[in-house]
Amino acid sequence: MSQILDYLQSQQSAMNEMLAQWVNQDSPTYHKDVVDKMGQMTMQAFLEAGVTLATTHTQPKYGDHYTMHYGEGGSQILILCHFDTVWALGEATRRPFTIENGIGYGPGTYDMKAGTLIALFALKALHHLGLKPRHKLVYMLTADEEISSPTSRPLIEAEGRQSNYCLVLEGSVNHSMTTARKGIGRFTMHITGKAAHAGVEPQKGVSAIEELARQIQALHAMTDHTKGVTVNVGVISGGERPNIVAPHASAEIDLRIVTQADAKAYCQKILSLQPFLEGCQLEVLGSITRWPFEETEANLALFEQAKLISEQLGMPTNHRQSGGGSDGNFTAALGVPTLDGLGAIGGGAHALTEHVVLEYLPKRAALLAELIMRL
Ligand SMILES: [Zn+2]
């Protein structure tokens, strides 16, 4: 392990420089031409580090995804990185990469350009030192994680089915690793009522807004903190004018669940909601967009291996469950031993405070490289 660490410590300034370059390239999920630039830049860096490009998954609407291979073996380790960010076009110009007291700031630093960089440099270490992992390494660089991976999901699942392990480079808080994540459901509710003059003949109308108000109560009442289940109506709209009984209303709903069983049960509950008011029509559409990443024994066993290495590198760690989803949810739901939070140490994902601690970049890359060698 010491030769891996020595090599990576010597790469600190190269890591900082490449991170600056990557952060200064915008990569908003919804701008294909821009996020494609980031994808090509990232893919090129991996090619230079020794991978072979297996497939470019060309996409008509979102950015292209890449699958790359390194080494040989009948078994494989899947390593997941995404290069899109939640930040709008022009954010990198407004707020370019800066370093202050050893902390790197900028859009996408923590989520997850520094994580992808860690995966790249772990690979460089293996390649430079001529170390041969027991398993073939399969890297997937994807472009639509921040919108729940509509186009990369089937690709990740197909690759996941072939994999013995899955390692995900999302960021880490205080050196913790992620061994479980909540699943996510997304739903839209459309209510059709009946318009009427609110002053002249209100009794002839049926208010979609009143119906919605009752549905919101029913939905929020499904939240059960003891089970880690939350239901949130996050967006509502409806009505025409103050003096019209509202003919329509709608809502967008977010569901979070911890277990597969609750995912099915609560999805069913939400989809089968019935109207309270006579004369109202209710339509609920939606599904589970990310199945729960449950804390299985296999995931914990993988964590224990990583923990040992992290401690040997002077980084005590623990495992945690996250309320947010990642692409690790897809592989974990398939039963593939999955470990997430192997990326950068920092915080502030999706916030202006987003940052990474630069001095840990080489050590985190050493952790990943050593973990790959021990699996
Ligand atoms: Zn991310």
Keyword list:
Aminopeptidase, binds zinc ion, four-stranded antiparallel β-sheet, Alpha-Beta Plaits, 16 strands, 11 helices, six-stranded mixed β-sheet, about 375 residues, alpha/beta
Instruction: Describe the strand arrangement of the main beta sheet, using strand numbers.
Output: 1-2-6-3-7-14
H and E string: HHHEEEHEEHEHEEEHEEHEHEHEEEH
The name of the CATH superfamily of the largest domain reads: Zn peptidases
Distance between the termini: 14 Å
- Which stretches are poorly predicted, pLDDT < 50 over at least 5 residues? none
Tally of helical runs:
11
- CATH topology of the largest domain, anyone? Aminopeptidase
**Mean residue pLDDT:** 97
Structural class: alpha/beta
CATH architecture of the largest domain: 3-Layer(aba) Sandwich
- In terms of DSSP E residues, the strand content is 15-25%
The ligands bound in this entry are: zinc ion
Compute the number of strand runs: 16
Q: Give the % helix.
A: 25-40%
Number of domains: 2
Question: What does the largest sheet look like?
Answer: 6 strands, mixed
CATH class of the largest domain: Alpha Beta
Rounded Rg: 23 Å
3D shape: elongated
Description:
With 375 residues, this protein is α/β, with parallel strands linked by helices. It has two domains: 2-181 and 293-374, 3-Layer(aba) Sandwich (Aminopeptidase), CATH 3.40.630; 183-290, Alpha-Beta Plaits (2-Layer Sandwich), CATH 3.30.70. It is 35% helix and 24% strand. The protein has a six-stranded mixed beta sheet, sandwiched between helices. A four-stranded antiparallel beta sheet has the order 4-5-16-15, with helices on one face. The chain has a four-stranded antiparallel beta sheet with strand order 10-11-9-12, with helices on one face. The mean pLDDT is 97. It binds zinc ion (ZN). The site of zinc ion has 5 residues, from helix 5.
